Amino acid sequence: MNDSRKSLQSKLINAIRDSITICDIEAFVGQKPIVNTCSDADRLIIQHANIDADINHSGDFPKLIETKDVTYWLVSHETSYTRVIGIYWPLKGMPKLFHARVYPP
After folding, report:
1. Domain residue spans in the chain?
2. How far apart are CA 21 and CA 75, in angstroms?
3. pTM for this structure?
């Protein structure tokens, strides 16, 4: 894992620990996410996203139908997808970190 990805992951873990809200996450991290469902436009985008768990990482992966909010940042571009790291807020429980692959529409 490169240093910028480690730094981003650390910031996201701290955001979860500090209970940062979806609408405050960008300022906390200091970097604009690709998607943040605090925005109504991004909420529409995520409803149509072709996204799945990054098989290179274990851990939680959001079932979008069971989430209140989602935000994620670019990690890398691959040939047929983009790797992202983000946080999702489930309908019940605490926010969780996730790693995913996003495919073009």
Report:
1. 3-103
2. 22
3. 0.91
9 phi/psi in degrees, rounded to 5: -60, -40
Summarised one tens digit per residue, pLDDT across range 63-98 is 888 899 999 999 998 889 999 999 999 999 999 999
Contact 38, 23 (CB under 8 A): yes
> 52 is written with which tokens?
């799945």
98 within 8 A of 87, measured Cβ to Cβ: yes
Residue with tokens 């992202």: 84
Cβ atoms of 70 and 60 within 8 Å: the answer is no
Q: 3-state DSSP call for residue 12? A: helix
Q: How far apart are CA 1 and CA 18, in angstroms?
A: 24
Residue in 37, 24, 25 with CA at minimum distance from that of residue 70: 37
Top pLDDT among 55 and 24 is at 24
Q: At 1, is the pLDDT very low, low, confident or very high (cuts 50, 70, 90)?
A: low
